[in-house]
Design a protein that fits this description.
Oligomer: single chain
Pfam family, one: CHAD
Structural class: mainly alpha
Distance between the termini: 20 Å
Shape: flat
Protein name: CHAD domain-containing protein
InterPro entries: CHAD_dom, CHAD_dom_sf
Organism: Ralstonia mannitolilytica
Largest sheet: none
Number of helices: 10
Number of strands: 0
Helix content: over 70%
Amino acid sequence: MSKHSHAAILSIFANIVDEHIASLRGTLSRLAAPSPTDEDLHQFRVTLRRLRSAWVTFGPVLPCRFMTQWKPRLRALAASTGPVREWDVLLSDWLPAARHGLAADDDVARAWLDEAERKSREARRRDWELLRADLAAPDVPQALADLERAVAAFKRDGGADSQPRFARSRASALRKKLIRRGRQPKRASAPRLHRARIAAKQWRYLYEAFYPALGVRAPKRYRAQLRKLQDALGEVHDVEASLARLAQLMTASPPASIVSAFHKRAAAARKRAAKSLRWVRDHRAP
């Protein structure tokens, strides 16, 4: 890679970071308002995930010191939003789905679900207040300002150059990572499939958020396949996370009918993931 191309790619990265920082500031102001919405928090999480994915996409050209300094800071900020997200998934998806699948005479499971929902809402409310306090702390906007200053050194005058070779090399690298982590999805451990999901997400963000900035267009069908794969792998992760949350919350173990419903759904998700992974293996990264 020439020095000119290297500098051009760094400048593109800096512009992407600035755009995401502006979006994060907007969502932070809404989250600090008297009545923030769940959608505000969702947008904050999505924007932060996309921003962190930029470190993966542009990693080969980023200075080591910059990578070492900023990856853990952004990871810590993202981790603070995790508990609320897990309660949301549990309350909006997994517990209602388990209830829908219960037999009409399964009163024990229904009573257990009633208590689980009540306690989950209380826990979600507590974690939401803790998260709002964390996001309102002065070190969050300070971190965004520090990052803005740090990437200013990467900017250069003039329009952005098209970088198709770099873009496609990153897509190829993420494809290899996903295929490696997604081996044998019907039997692989949930943690390894979670890492495969992260790779799929990073790859999709490359196509949706970073390809246009690099002057390249990705086919809609590939983006759609990656979204399907990410959703399927997400269900495999969510069943483990949901059961772990419930184990911490409840004194009584979940009835067998509920555990069975959770694992049956995860098994179906593994089959869908296997189908999508076969498609990815059969098609080169565009």
